Amino acid sequence: MQKTIFITGGAGFIGSHVIRLMANKYPDSRVVNLDALTYAGNLENLKDVESLPNYVFEKADILDTKRLSALFEQYQPDAVIHLAAESHVDRSILSPLDFVYTNIIGTVNLLHAAKDCWKENYEGKLFHHVSTDEVFGALGTTGFFTEETKYDPHSPYSASKASSDHFVRAYADTYGLPVIITNCSNNYGPNQFPEKLIPLFINNIIHKKPLPVYGDGLYTRDWLYVKDHAEAIDLVFHRGKLNETYAIGGFNEWKNIELVKLLCKLMDEKLNNKPGTSEALITFVKDRPGHDRRYAIDASKINEELGWKPSVTFEEGLSQTIDWYFDNKEWLQHVTSGAYQQYYEEQYKG
Ligand code: NAD
Ligand code: DAU
C-alpha cells in the first residue's frame, strides 16, 4: 500500500460516502475507518465496502487516548480525515457536554496522537478536519459565508465545532502540523440518520406522521448532495493548499417550508398519493432555541482553485434520496427502533 489514511466517523452519514469513494478510487491506499459506533454510526452503511482488500474497520472512540496511540503506532498513517463528531444541533441543546467531549476533546486527542506519531516529520502528512458552516453563525437576508468570515457560533454544536477548528489551527501554528479545514453547508442524501430534517420528514411521510416545522418555517439552508461533498473532500485532501480553509456549499438555498413542500410533492408523486396528501401533515411547532436564520456559502475558492462544483440539481438529488429510503426500508426500520423512539418523544414533546 502506498498510503494509509485514517478516516474517523466513517460509519456515519458523510463518513461512509467518503470511505466508499476513497477505498474504491484509490486501491493502492489503505483506508482505515475509526468509529465508536454511537447511535449515528452504522456498519450497514458500508456493506458494499467491507470486502475491499484496502479497507479496514477499527472500533475506536476518539476519547480513548491509549487506543488512539496504539492505532497510530500500529498503522503509521500518512493522513487523517476527521469526521467523527456529535452532529445534531437539537441533541446538542439536550446534552451539550457530549459535544464538548467528542467534538472538542476528541479532536484534540486525535491532533495530539497525529503529532506524536509524526514526530515533526511532516513530509507527505496531512490532518484534514471536516467542519461546518455553522461556525460562522447566522446571515441576514443577504450575503454569504466565505473562508474569511468571522466565527460566531450560537448552538452548543456549532460552538464545539468552532472550538475544534481553533484547535486544529493552533496545532498548525504551534507545532507545525500540516492541516486543512473544510467548512461545508447542509448535506442530504442516502444513509442520513432520520433526526435531520430531510430523512426525518421522509420517514414521517412514510408513516403518515406530522411534519414538525420549527417556528415560522422561513429559516434558510444551503443544501448539498452528500456525494458531492465527498468529491469535494477528496479534491481538497489531494490537491488543496496546506494550512488553508475551503468553504463548500451547494449554491442551493431553500427556505425550510419551501423545501418541505417540494419534498411533499415528490413523495406524493412516488407514493401515488392524491396531490396535497403529504402537505396536510405539515405542523408548525415551537422553534429551536438559538435557531440560526440563514446559512449560505460562497464556494468560489474551491470552484476556482480546484474546479469543484455540485454535480446534481437539488430536484435530482432529492428524488434519488427519496428512492434510496424507499429501497432501504429495512435500514430505516433498524435505525428507528429502540433509542430513536425515546429521542423522538423527548425532542418533539410539544
Ligand atoms: P453523523 O452523526 O452521521 O456521523 C458521525 C459519526 O461519528 C458516527 O459514525 C459516529 O459513530 C462517529 N462518532 C461519534 N462520536 C465518536 C467518538 N467519540 N469516537 C469515534 N467515532 C465517533 O455525522 P455526519 O452528518 O456524517 O457528519 C460528519 C462530520 O461532518 C461531522 O464532523 C459534522 O460536524 C460535519 N458536517 C456535517 C454536515 C451535515 O450536514 N451533516 C455538514 C457539514 C459538516
Ligand atoms: O450547516 C451544516 C450543518 O447542517 C451540519 O453541520 C450539521 O451537522 C447538520 O445537522 C445540519 O444542521 P441543521 O441544524 O441546519 O440541520 P437540520 O436537518 O437539523 O435542520 C435543518 C433546518 O430544518 C433547520 O432550520 C431546522 C429545521 N428543522 C429541523 C428538524 C430536525 C425543522 O423545522 N424541523 C425538524 O424537525
SSE order and pairing:
Blueprint (H helix, E strand, L loop, with lengths): L2 E6 L4 H13 L3 E7 L19 E5 L5 H11 L3 E4 L6 H6 L1 H23 L7 E7 L23 H20 L3 E6 L1 E3 L8 H10 L4 E4 L5 E6 H14 L5 E4 L4 E3 H16 L10 E4 L14 H7 L7 H14 L1 H7 L3 H9 L3
Parallel strand pairs: 1-2, 1-4, 2-3, 4-5, 5-6, 6-10, 7-9, 8-12
Antiparallel strand pairs: 9-11
Descriptive overview:
This protein is an alpha/beta fold and 350 residues long. The protein has a domain at 3-189 and 222-252 and 294-312: NAD(P)-binding Rossmann-like Domain (Rossmann fold, 3-Layer(aba) Sandwich), CATH 3.40.50.720. The chain is 43% helix and 17% strand. It has helices at 13-25, 65-75, 89-94, 96-118, 156-175, 197-206, 226-239, 256-271, 300-306, 314-327, 329-335, 339-347, and strands at 3-8, 29-35, 55-59, 79-82, 126-132, 179-184, 186-188, 211-214, 220-225, 245-248, 253-255, 282-285. The chain has a 7-stranded parallel beta sheet with strand order 3-2-1-4-5-6-10, with helices on both faces. A 3-stranded mixed beta sheet has the order 7-9-11. It is globular, with a radius of gyration of 20 Å. Bound molecules: nicotinamide-adenine-dinucleotide and 2'deoxy-thymidine-5'-diphospho-alpha-D-glucose. Nicotinamide-adenine-dinucleotide is lined by residues 8-9, 11-15, 35-38, 40-41, 61-63, 83-85, 87, 102, 106, 130, 132, 161, 184, 186-187, 193.
